[in-house]
Write a structure and sequence with these properties.
alpha+beta; 38% helix; L-fuculose-1-phosphate Aldolase; 216 residues
Length: 216
């Protein structure tokens, strides 16, 4: 596959990586980003400094797990591949290790409906997937279990992952989930959170679906 193919998407992925780190939701090269293409997906390479990342270093992969080029894909490519296979509405994926998401993930905690914006991830809570070694198929399998009817989840002792209908929306969701994790952490410092009911959260989910992403 020519490195010139999908040039604009490759550049957008690099910009997304820099934005992700600039927003403080990732550190160094720990996270990864991918975007679906007509014949698979493009994903960040393993271990390359985002400040030095070039379009030709973005790795083109097939849904069978094959890749093209001189660079190896992120070790987490299985999670990206499997989300694209299962979730037809996934066009871009962001995986990162933001501080507050990771803090909760290390406690194996879900983010419950302490705030109505939890519904931005598609459900009444944001679940935490069981731990498995990074880069393993087991980790991807655990992730898929908690991403049923969801667009984001925590990964135990690891971080978070989310997807959306385009890269900008996936990045925005990643920031929102980390914001919720930070807010929930602060709430926990004051005591037990007062949670919204499942009935109220389902009402919010319906309103989100009807009114797009402007949830003020």
């Amino acid at each position: 596959m020519s490195k010139a193919k999908n040039s604009a998407t490759r550049k957008a992925i690099i910009a997304g990586c820099l934005h992700m780190n600039g927003q403080g939701i990732n550190q160094g090269t720990a996270g990864n980003i991918s975007v679906r293409t007509n014949d698979g997906f493009l994903i960040t390479p393993s271990g390359v400094d985002y400040e030095k990342l070039q379009p030709g270093q973005i790795v083109a992969m097939t849904m069978q797990g094959d890749w093209d080029g001189d660079f190896t894909p992120s070790s987490e490519w299985r999670m990206h591949r499997d989300i694209y296979k299962i979730h037809a509405d996934a066009a871009a994926i962001v995986h990162a290790h933001p501080t507050f998401c990771t803090t909760l993930a290390c406690m194996h905690e879900n983010i419950p409906p302490f705030h109505y914006m939890v519904a931005v991830a598609g459900g009444v809570d944001i679940r935490c997937a069981k731990y498995a070694t990074f880069g393993s198929q087991k980790l991807s399998d655990n992730m898929l279990q908690v991403l049923q009817d969801r667009k984001a989840c925590l990964l135990a002792n690891h971080g978070m992952i989310c997807f959306n209908t385009n890269l900008a929306q996936a990045l925005a969701l990643a920031v929102e989930v980390e914001t919720l994790a930070r807010q929930y952490w602060h709430v926990r410092q004051m005591g037990k959170a007062k949670l919204l009911s499942s009935q109220e959260m389902k009402k919010v989910i319906g309103q989100f679906a009807n009114h797009g992403q402007n949830h003020e």
